[in-house]
Write a structure and sequence with these properties.
By secondary structure, the chain is an alpha/beta fold. Helices cover about 50% and strands about 15% of the residues. The chain folds into 2 domains: about 1-135, Rossmann fold; about 145-210, Arc Repressor Mutant, subunit A. It contains 10 helices and 6 strands; from the N terminus they run βαβαβαβαβαβααααα. It has a 6-stranded parallel sheet, sandwiched between helices.
């Protein structure tokens, strides 16, 4: 079973998500939280697999709550998916940089929400379709100048190539087709790159691709 915690200050939103998730044979909602502080307490107590975290909440907002969760070594297996009302929420890029595994707009289709929960458990990043590249390009353009090579020097040429493809939003299957390798080989390259760079998940690998200068916003097309 995939254990999910819902953190949102709107009870109607939580009720809708719970009804959808609990109807699945492989997903169970283990708790709800109406503010960030309650969310962090419940996450530490229950250690769910996935947290659906609203960005704007009282007492402690979703961004600060996510930092507390991702900064806790004992909660490394907990995946946070941010929920936002607007596709271009100004906090989304920073949330991913802080360790969130992705984000979804609240009016996403039910099938996409279910795919999101299952995808992050499998180690994939999840960003709402249609806005991923535009959003990352916009906020990467506002972020600091590319960092020095540093850890990037540890990557092989192929790993750098794979990281660049992850950075422009390609899935393992798309990377495999681009490089004419198997999806398993592509996934292995992605995993090794994450380990070498200390990336929590695929979403952080995307951010590192921009911050290192390996990918620039103008390349997205």
């Amino acid at each position: 079973m995939i254990r999910v915690l819902l953190a949102d200050d709107q009870s109607l939103v939580r009720a809708g998500f719970r009804a959808l998730l609990d109807a699945q044979s492989d997903i169970e909602v283990v708790a709800e939280a109406a503010d960030g502080e309650e969310a962090v307490r419940s996450i530490r107590e229950l250690r769910p697999d996935v947290v659906l975290m609203d960005i704007r909440m009282p007492l402690l907002d979703g961004l600060a709550a996510t930092r507390e969760v991702t900064g806790d070594a004992g909660l490394q297996d907990v995946k946070v998916v941010m929920l936002t009302t607007f596709e271009l929420d100004e906090y989304v890029f920073e949330a991913i940089r802080s360790g969130a595994s992705g984000f979804l707009v609240k009016d996403t289709e039910p099938e996409e929400l279910l795919r999101a929960v299952r995808a992050v458990v499998d180690g994939d990043a999840l960003l709402s379709p249609g806005v991923t590249r535009r959003l990352i390009a916009e906020f990467a353009a506002r972020s600091k100048e590319p960092a020095a090579a540093g850890e990037m020097a540890r990557l092989t040429e192929r790993e750098r190539e794979v990281m660049a493809l992850v950075g422009i939003g390609l899935s393992n299957e798309e990377i495999a087709r681009r490089l004419v390798v198997s999806p398993l080989t592509a996934k292995t390259h992605v995993s090794r790159t994450m380990v070498k760079l200390g990336a929590r998940d695929r979403a952080q690998l995307v951010v590192l691709a921009y911050e290192s200068g390996l990918v620039r916003p103008g390349w997205l097309g």
